[in-house]
């Protein structure tokens, strides 16, 4: 059973656009606060390229799916799941 308090918390964050602030600032620019996220994404993308088989990439707890486009640009199929419905809805908008 999903903890409804946790789900509500992440739904609220998604509606407020909090997660989008992790990737770029309000002007769509990378800054010191978003840089560390981008470095981690680059590392993950390298791991996928090097070690993932040919099947779809499953992103468990995908949130707003900030790496979905990069994975698809690699020619890979992306599947993201999250228990917060608003996170999945935000991901669909990316």
Quick rundown:
Helices cover 50% and strands 9% of the residues.
Describe this entry's structure for a reader:
The chain is mainly alpha-helical and 94 residues long. The chain contains 4 helices and 2 strands, in the order ααβαβα. It has helices at 4-16, 32-51, 68-73, 85-92; strands spanning 57-60, 78-81. A two-stranded parallel sheet has the order 1-2. It is globular. The termini are far apart.
SSE diagram, text form:
Blueprint: H1 4-16, H2 32-51, E1 57-60, H3 68-73, E2 78-81, H4 85-92
Parallel strand pairs: 1-2
Quick one: how many beta strands? 2
- Give the oligomer, counting copies of the same chain as homo and different chains as hetero: single chain
Estimated share of beta-strand residues: 5-15%
Which strands sit side by side, in order, in the main sheet?
1-2
N- and C-termini, Cα separation: 28 Å
Shape: globular
- The poorly predicted ranges are none
Radius of gyration: 14 Å
Largest sheet: 2 strands, parallel
Number of alpha- plus pi-helical segments: 4
SSE ordering: HHEHEH
Average pLDDT value?
Answer: 82
């Amino acid at each position: 059973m999903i903890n409804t308090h946790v789900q509500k918390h992440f739904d609220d964050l998604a509606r407020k656009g909090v997660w989008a602030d992790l990737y770029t600032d309000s002007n769509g620019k990378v800054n010191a606060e978003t840089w560390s996220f981008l470095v981690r994404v680059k590392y993950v993308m390298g791991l996928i390229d090097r070690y993932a088989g040919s099947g779809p990439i499953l992103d468990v707890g995908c949130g707003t799916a900030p790496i979905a486009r990069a994975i698809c640009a690699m020619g890979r199929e992306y599947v993201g799941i999250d228990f917060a419905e608003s996170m999945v809805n935000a991901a669909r908008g990316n």
